[in-house]
Write the structure tokens for this entry.
Amino acid sequence: MPGLPPDTLKALLAVQRLKLLFSRLPAGIVSSLIALFLMFVILLETSGADMAKGWAAFMLSVLGLRGWLWYAFHNRAPEHLLRWELAYAFAALLMGLGWGWLNGPVYPSNLYAQVVVLTMSLAVSFAAAVFMGLSCMSFWIMALPTLLPALWRFLDNFGHYSVFSWLLSGTALAMVGTVQTVHHRAMLENLRRRIESEALLAEQQAIFQSTTLGIAVIQGDHIVKANQRLGELLARRLHDLQELPLTEHFATVSELDTLIANSEAAFAKGHAYHGAFRMRRSDGREFWAEISGRRMDNTDGPVRSVWLIGEAPLRSIPQ
């Protein structure tokens, strides 16, 4: 994109990606709390109170760490991006180990509870693809400890259907990876487009404000947007330019009517319009202005036109 070097775009994209990643932490924590509560109830019935409390205490501690990371990140400048992402990934690893533990020492003997653990492991992995998808490192470092032990238990329990079981396990892992990959690419592309759009808008705004000509966007009989130079020409504040009708800025109503009629005729043919008219400053002084206008291409909203206005140096108002 003109005006935005690739290195600059890459740096901005890295910062915005990390900000968006951390902005999803609260929603991820809430979803983890819901899953944690459901598993706590299952463990309480199948593994005993001590085991359930120990697992829940560990998971709540990890969620507390993730909450602290979110708070710390949003209260500091986004520097040392790799350190922040590594800290995020470390908390994700702890979460993955906690979910993976369900298929280890606390693995229930009840078949119904085993199905719940497998289902929850899949659900947590898919949720990680959404909430952590912007960081491939964090996603895989959580999803693998969560999903692989669950799939291994599944294969161990249903090993007599070896081909079918392996096929299901591979499909589940592939689906989780595909969801993360698609989500990651889509979010990066959206971020890139937003950054480029914001850069283009900033560039246009800089041009809008720095030009030596007054610029006005007209809708109906009012100015809806103007630059500082137009305010200087008419000796008015920008707020006043937008509040006052166009008749306040021209020497006579007839001249404004002529401008509107002639410009509308030119716009209807797809042409720009150029003319010279007398305008009036806030103190009543009049001056000749060269005015050029063109209708804006906007099919979804009200009809607007953009005008360039400058003093005509070869014309003067009789005293």
